[in-house]
Amino acid sequence: MNVFQFVWQNPDQVSRLTLEHLWLVGVSTLLAALVGIPLGIGISHFPRLNKPVLASANIIQTIPSLALFGFLLPVPWLGERADRLAILALTLYALLPIVRNTYTGIRGVDPAVVEAGRGMGLTDLQLLFQVELPLAMSVILSGVRVALVISVGLATIAAAIGAGGLGEFIFRGLAMVNNGLILAGAIPAAMLALLADLGVGWVERRLKPR
Protein backbone atom coordinates (compact mmCIF):
# COMPACT_ATOMS: atom_id res chain seq x y z
CA MET A 1 0.00 0.00 0.00
CA ASN A 2 1.47 3.36 -0.97
CA VAL A 3 1.16 6.56 1.01
CA PHE A 4 -1.72 8.01 -1.02
CA GLN A 5 -3.81 4.86 -0.66
CA PHE A 6 -3.19 4.82 3.07
CA VAL A 7 -4.20 8.48 3.50
CA TRP A 8 -7.28 7.95 1.30
CA GLN A 9 -8.39 4.90 3.30
CA ASN A 10 -7.64 6.37 6.76
CA PRO A 11 -8.71 10.03 6.65
CA ASP A 12 -9.95 10.09 10.27
CA GLN A 13 -6.70 8.75 11.64
CA VAL A 14 -4.59 11.12 9.52
CA SER A 15 -6.65 14.16 10.50
CA ARG A 16 -6.59 13.20 14.22
CA LEU A 17 -2.82 12.81 14.32
CA THR A 18 -2.34 16.00 12.28
CA LEU A 19 -4.46 17.95 14.80
CA GLU A 20 -2.45 16.42 17.67
CA HIS A 21 0.74 17.49 15.89
CA LEU A 22 -0.58 21.03 15.42
CA TRP A 23 -1.60 21.16 19.09
CA LEU A 24 1.89 20.17 20.30
CA VAL A 25 3.62 22.63 17.94
CA GLY A 26 1.20 25.52 18.50
CA VAL A 27 1.20 25.38 22.30
CA SER A 28 4.96 24.89 22.60
CA THR A 29 5.76 27.73 20.17
CA LEU A 30 3.33 30.05 21.95
CA LEU A 31 4.91 29.25 25.32
CA ALA A 32 8.40 29.71 23.87
CA ALA A 33 7.39 33.13 22.52
CA LEU A 34 5.84 34.15 25.85
CA VAL A 35 9.08 33.24 27.63
CA GLY A 36 11.65 33.97 24.92
CA ILE A 37 10.57 37.45 23.82
CA PRO A 38 10.65 38.95 27.35
CA LEU A 39 13.99 37.18 27.93
CA GLY A 40 15.39 38.65 24.71
CA ILE A 41 14.15 42.12 25.70
CA GLY A 42 15.68 41.71 29.15
CA ILE A 43 19.14 40.71 27.96
CA SER A 44 19.13 43.49 25.34
CA HIS A 45 18.74 46.06 28.13
CA PHE A 46 20.96 44.25 30.65
CA PRO A 47 23.94 43.10 28.53
CA ARG A 48 25.66 41.26 31.40
CA LEU A 49 22.85 38.69 31.30
CA ASN A 50 23.13 37.89 27.58
CA LYS A 51 25.99 35.38 27.83
CA PRO A 52 24.48 33.12 30.53
CA VAL A 53 21.00 33.22 28.98
CA LEU A 54 22.16 32.54 25.41
CA ALA A 55 24.64 29.91 26.64
CA SER A 56 21.86 28.08 28.51
CA ALA A 57 19.61 28.13 25.43
CA ASN A 58 22.51 26.87 23.29
CA ILE A 59 23.19 24.00 25.70
CA ILE A 60 19.54 22.91 25.52
CA GLN A 61 19.82 22.81 21.71
CA THR A 62 22.75 20.40 21.92
CA ILE A 63 20.82 17.78 23.96
CA PRO A 64 19.44 15.02 21.71
CA SER A 65 15.65 15.14 21.68
CA LEU A 66 15.09 11.56 22.87
CA ALA A 67 17.56 12.12 25.70
CA LEU A 68 15.72 15.27 26.79
CA PHE A 69 12.40 13.39 26.79
CA GLY A 70 14.08 10.72 28.93
CA PHE A 71 15.45 13.29 31.40
CA LEU A 72 12.00 14.82 31.84
CA LEU A 73 10.05 11.55 32.25
CA PRO A 74 10.70 11.21 36.02
CA VAL A 75 9.61 14.80 36.73
CA PRO A 76 6.41 14.79 38.86
CA TRP A 77 3.21 15.94 37.10
CA LEU A 78 5.04 16.21 33.74
CA GLY A 79 5.81 12.52 33.43
CA GLU A 80 2.18 11.62 34.10
CA ARG A 81 1.06 13.10 30.78
CA ALA A 82 3.13 12.54 27.65
CA ASP A 83 1.70 15.62 25.93
CA ARG A 84 2.80 17.90 28.81
CA LEU A 85 6.29 16.46 28.66
CA ALA A 86 6.48 16.86 24.87
CA ILE A 87 5.23 20.45 25.03
CA LEU A 88 7.86 21.37 27.65
CA ALA A 89 10.65 19.75 25.63
CA LEU A 90 9.55 21.48 22.40
CA THR A 91 9.28 24.80 24.25
CA LEU A 92 12.86 24.47 25.49
CA TYR A 93 14.11 23.69 21.96
CA ALA A 94 12.22 26.68 20.51
CA LEU A 95 13.68 29.19 22.98
CA LEU A 96 17.08 29.80 21.35
CA PRO A 97 15.98 31.31 17.99
CA ILE A 98 13.32 33.46 19.67
CA VAL A 99 15.60 34.79 22.43
CA ARG A 100 18.50 35.36 20.05
CA ASN A 101 16.43 37.14 17.39
CA THR A 102 14.64 39.30 19.95
CA TYR A 103 18.00 40.34 21.38
CA THR A 104 19.41 40.99 17.89
CA GLY A 105 16.33 42.94 16.80
CA ILE A 106 16.24 45.20 19.85
CA ARG A 107 20.00 45.83 19.75
CA GLY A 108 19.78 46.55 16.01
CA VAL A 109 17.45 49.52 16.45
CA ASP A 110 19.24 52.73 15.43
CA PRO A 111 20.43 54.50 18.62
CA ALA A 112 19.61 57.83 17.00
CA VAL A 113 15.95 56.81 16.79
CA VAL A 114 15.96 55.82 20.47
CA GLU A 115 17.57 59.12 21.44
CA ALA A 116 15.00 61.01 19.38
CA GLY A 117 12.29 59.21 21.32
CA ARG A 118 13.92 60.15 24.60
CA GLY A 119 14.12 63.75 23.41
CA MET A 120 10.36 63.65 22.85
CA GLY A 121 9.88 62.68 26.49
CA LEU A 122 9.10 58.98 26.06
CA THR A 123 9.65 56.74 29.08
CA ASP A 124 11.64 53.51 28.83
CA LEU A 125 8.41 51.50 28.59
CA GLN A 126 7.02 53.78 25.90
CA LEU A 127 10.29 53.53 23.98
CA LEU A 128 10.09 49.75 24.14
CA PHE A 129 6.51 49.44 22.88
CA GLN A 130 6.38 52.42 20.53
CA VAL A 131 9.89 52.42 19.05
CA GLU A 132 12.03 49.34 19.71
CA LEU A 133 9.52 46.50 19.37
CA PRO A 134 7.84 47.84 16.18
CA LEU A 135 11.24 48.28 14.52
CA ALA A 136 12.50 44.89 15.71
CA MET A 137 9.28 42.96 15.03
CA SER A 138 10.34 41.50 11.66
CA VAL A 139 13.56 40.15 13.19
CA ILE A 140 11.63 38.71 16.16
CA LEU A 141 9.15 37.03 13.81
CA SER A 142 12.06 35.54 11.91
CA GLY A 143 13.08 33.82 15.14
CA VAL A 144 9.51 32.63 15.74
CA ARG A 145 9.46 31.23 12.19
CA VAL A 146 12.65 29.24 12.79
CA ALA A 147 11.30 28.00 16.14
CA LEU A 148 8.03 26.93 14.50
CA VAL A 149 9.78 24.93 11.77
CA ILE A 150 12.08 23.29 14.33
CA SER A 151 9.08 22.35 16.48
CA VAL A 152 7.19 20.77 13.56
CA GLY A 153 10.14 18.49 12.89
CA LEU A 154 10.91 17.64 16.52
CA ALA A 155 7.25 17.00 17.35
CA THR A 156 7.47 13.80 15.30
CA ILE A 157 9.86 12.42 17.98
CA ALA A 158 7.17 13.03 20.64
CA ALA A 159 5.37 9.89 19.43
CA ALA A 160 8.20 7.86 20.97
CA ILE A 161 6.84 8.73 24.45
CA GLY A 162 3.19 8.35 23.47
CA ALA A 163 2.42 12.05 22.93
CA GLY A 164 0.76 11.41 19.57
CA GLY A 165 1.18 13.42 16.40
CA LEU A 166 2.33 12.42 12.94
CA GLY A 167 5.37 10.70 14.40
CA GLU A 168 3.09 7.76 15.25
CA PHE A 169 2.96 6.85 11.55
CA ILE A 170 6.73 7.16 11.27
CA PHE A 171 7.50 4.92 14.26
CA ARG A 172 4.81 2.43 13.25
CA GLY A 173 6.23 2.35 9.73
CA LEU A 174 9.75 1.79 11.06
CA ALA A 175 8.55 -1.11 13.22
CA MET A 176 6.71 -2.69 10.26
CA VAL A 177 9.39 -1.76 7.68
CA ASN A 178 6.64 -0.02 5.72
CA ASN A 179 7.86 2.96 3.69
CA GLY A 180 4.31 4.04 2.81
CA LEU A 181 3.42 4.36 6.48
CA ILE A 182 6.62 6.30 7.20
CA LEU A 183 5.82 8.72 4.37
CA ALA A 184 2.24 9.09 5.66
CA GLY A 185 3.78 10.80 8.70
CA ALA A 186 6.79 12.45 7.07
CA ILE A 187 5.04 14.13 4.11
CA PRO A 188 2.29 15.89 6.13
CA ALA A 189 4.90 17.00 8.69
CA ALA A 190 7.06 18.45 5.91
CA MET A 191 4.03 20.20 4.43
CA LEU A 192 3.14 21.70 7.82
CA ALA A 193 6.69 22.99 8.19
CA LEU A 194 6.59 24.58 4.72
CA LEU A 195 3.19 26.19 5.35
CA ALA A 196 4.35 27.54 8.72
CA ASP A 197 7.50 28.95 7.14
CA LEU A 198 5.59 30.60 4.29
CA GLY A 199 2.84 31.97 6.56
CA VAL A 200 5.09 33.52 9.19
CA GLY A 201 7.50 34.69 6.46
CA TRP A 202 4.64 36.58 4.79
CA VAL A 203 3.72 38.29 8.09
CA GLU A 204 7.40 39.05 8.70
CA ARG A 205 7.73 40.79 5.34
CA ARG A 206 4.56 42.80 5.97
CA LEU A 207 5.93 44.07 9.29
CA LYS A 208 9.42 44.85 8.03
CA PRO A 209 10.21 48.57 8.50
CA ARG A 210 10.37 50.46 5.22
Describe the 3D structure.
By secondary structure, this protein is mostly helical. Helix content is 80%, strand content 0%. The chain has helices at residues 3-9, 11-45, 50-62, 65-72, 82-107, 111-119, 124-154, 167-176, 179-207. α6 (111-119) runs antiparallel to α7 (124-154). The longest helix has 35 residues, at 11-45. The chain is elongated.
Quick structural gist:
The protein is an all-alpha fold and 210 residues long. It is built from nine helices and no strands. The mean pLDDT is 87.
Keywords:
210 residues, mainly alpha, 9 helices, 0% strand
Largest sheet: none
What Rg, in angstroms, do the CA atoms define?
A: 20 Å
Amino- and carboxy-terminal Cα gap: 52 Å
Query: What is the tally of beta strands?
Result: 0
What string gives the helices and strands in order? HHHHHHHHH
| Helix fraction bin | over 70%
Structural class determined from secondary elements: mainly alpha
Strand residue percentage: under 5%
Q: For the residues shown, what is the average pLDDT? A: 87
How would the global form be characterised?
Answer: elongated
Uncertain spans: none
Count of separate DSSP helical elements = 9
